[in-house]
Amino acid sequence: MAQEVFRTASVLRACHEAYAQQESARRAARIDASRGDAAPLAPELSWIPWGKTTEIPAVIDAFEAEYAAIRSGAALCDQPQRGVLSIGGALRRDFLQRMLTQDLKGLATGVAAEAFWLNRKGRIEADLLLCEVGDRVLVDCAASVAATTAAALTTFVFSEEVIITDASDSVYRLAIHGPEALALLSGAGVDESVVTRLSAALACASATIAGCSVTLVRRDRCGVVGVELFVDRAAAEQVWQALLSQHDLTGGGRRRARPCGWFAFNTARIEGGTPLYEIDFGSTSLPHESGILDSRVSFTKGCYLGQEVVARMQSLGKPKQIVRAFRMESDALPCEGAGVFADEIVTAGAAPIGQVTSSTVSPMLSGAVIGFATLRLQHATPETRVWIEAGGTRHAARVQSALASVGDDDAKGAQVAGPTAP
Questions:
Q1: Domain limits at 361?
Q2: Which of 79, 26, 68, 41 is nearest to 257 (CA)?
Q3: How much is the pLDDT for 250?
Q4: Which residue in 154, 193, 319, 366 has the most C-beta neighbors within 10 A?
Q5: Whole-angstrom Cα distance, residue 360 to residue 335?
Q6: Is the pLDDT of residue 33 over 60?
Q7: Do 290 and 358 sit in the same domain of this protein?
Q8: pLDDT for 94-118, tens place per residue?
C-alpha cells in the first residue's frame, strides 16, 4: 500500500484551489459592481474519490463553463487516476506484439496504438494506450492496475532487451479536449511541425512546453479534438500553468481555455460514444463485451495471451452481453447499476436483461438523457426498446449502436454556447 500513497491526491490541487478562488472573486466583482460590493462567491471546486487510493477533481470552477470549453474552446483535464508504464529495450515492440491484442507491427516512433492486456481466460486486465517515443514505449492505463500489469508482463520477459517499469510515480497525465486544443499547444510554444503531426488520429510526438519535455498523443474521446499529455510529475504544474495562460479572457468576457473536472469530461465522453475501463467494462469483461472490440483487437495477427478465447468467440460464438449506448425517451435519469428490463410491467421474479454503467444529461442533445448499459446480446440490437429503472419506476429507452450517432440530426443543429464568464 505504501507504494500507492502518491496517487491519493492530484499534484495540481493548489492550482485548482487558486483558480477556483480567482474565478469566484472575478464573478462576484462583475455581479456586484453596480453595488460596489465585490465579496467573493464560494468556489465550486469539489473532489470525488476514484477507487481506494485516488481523488480527482469533479468540478474545478463551474460545470457549464467546463463543458462549453470542451465543445467550443479547450478544456484542460487533470488525470491523477491514470497510471503510466515505461517499456524499454531493443525487443520491446516484438515483446508487446506477442502479449497484446492489437497488431503492433506498425508501432514506430511517432505512432500510438490502443490494445487490451488479457489474462489466460481472455478477460481484460487493462485497457492500454501505447506511444512509441523512440527509446521506449510509454503506456497509459488505469492507475489501479499499473503495478499489477507491469508485474504480470514482467513474468513473460526472458530477455534483458525488454525492461518494464511502473512509471506512475514519475510521469503524470494531463489531457486537452476541445476544437482549440491544437491552437492551445501552438500558443504554448509547441513546434508547428508537431502540431501538424497531431492532426492525425493516434499520432504521437515529443515536444517542449515551458521548458519541460512532454509527450503528446492525439486521441479523440469526446467527439472533438483530444490530446493526451505525458509529463514529468515534477513539471506537471509548470506545464499546466503554461497551457492555461495561453487563453485568457477574450472579447466579451469569454474564456476559451479552462481547467475541466471529471463531471464535464464524463458528459462529453458519453456523448462522444467512449465507454471506459473501470466504469462501463472491467476485469471480468471479455473483449467482445466491451463495445470497443474493433479498436483494440486484431484478428489477423499471431498469438497473444488469451487469444484462443477471443478467436473462438469471434469464429464460433457470440458474447452473452455487450456494452451498448441508450437514449431515454423521457427525462428520467437512471443511476449507475440501475436495472434494464425487457418489459415495462414489473413482474415478480423477472430478471433484468442488463444494467446501466454510466449516464448523463446531454447538453449537445437538448437535455436528452443518454448513457451506456451492459445488455444481453439478444436485446442489444439498435432501436430495441428497453425499460430502465429510475426513481423507483421503469422508463422507456432506445438502444443505440453508438452514442456518437445518437441524435445526429439534433447534434448537427445544436448551438453550444461558448464558455462565457458568468
A1: 320-413
A2: 68
A3: 54
A4: 319
A5: 9
A6: no
A7: no
A8: 999 999 999 999 999 999 999 999 9
